[in-house]
Design brief:
globular; about 5% strand; about 160 residues; 2 strands; mainly alpha; two-stranded antiparallel ribbon
Length: about 160
């Protein structure tokens, strides 16, 4: 179990690093919460894939590109108010679900995403999947982005 949690944390860190610093810096707090939920969603479905046939009826290769495109779409659509129906349609039916061929897998993907992209995520002290409680997701995301942006800046200066 400890290995699974460590792997999920690594997947979450990779997901957070994949989203461009610019995306985060030009967003309001609600959008940042939504992007954090998207990163957590991505990490979880990537980790599920490691369980083979127990995870999905058909194996899928969800990529960081799926995440980055979804994050960009959230930022561009959710300027003042979040259009939930449009965000969920783009994320599930096009970006992630576009490659899902099994209807049961698609329904599972929709169910998982609902916990990470719904109006509830905007409340303080939201608990993901009734298991993952992060009291300050935007602060955690801010710290992650700050570290990533500093590393990126150092690499570019070399």
């Amino acid at each position: 179990r400890q290995m699974c949690i460590r792997d999920s944390a690594k997947s979450l860190a990779a997901a957070v690093e994949a989203v461009d610093c610019e995306v985060f810096s030009r967003s309001n707090e609600n959008v940042r919460k939504l992007v954090f939920g998207l990163c957590l969603f991505h990490a979880i479905i990537v980790e599920r894939g490691k369980f083979g046939a127990l995870a999905w009826n058909t194996p899928y290769e969800f990529s960081l590109t799926d995440l980055m495109v979804s994050a960009e779409q959230i930022v561009s659509l959710a300027k003042e108010e979040i259009p939930w129906e449009a965000v969920n349609y783009l994320t599930i039916d096009l970006n992630y679900g576009g490659q899902v061929s099994d209807p049961i897998d698609l329904r599972l993907l929709q169910t998982i995403l609902h916990d990470f992209q719904s109006p509830d995520i905007l409340t303080d002290n939201y608990t993901f999947l009734s298991l993952i409680h992060i009291s300050e997701p935007t602060r955690l995301l801010s710290i992650s982005y700050a570290v990533f942006c500093l590393k990126k800046k150092k690499r570019n200066n070399k």
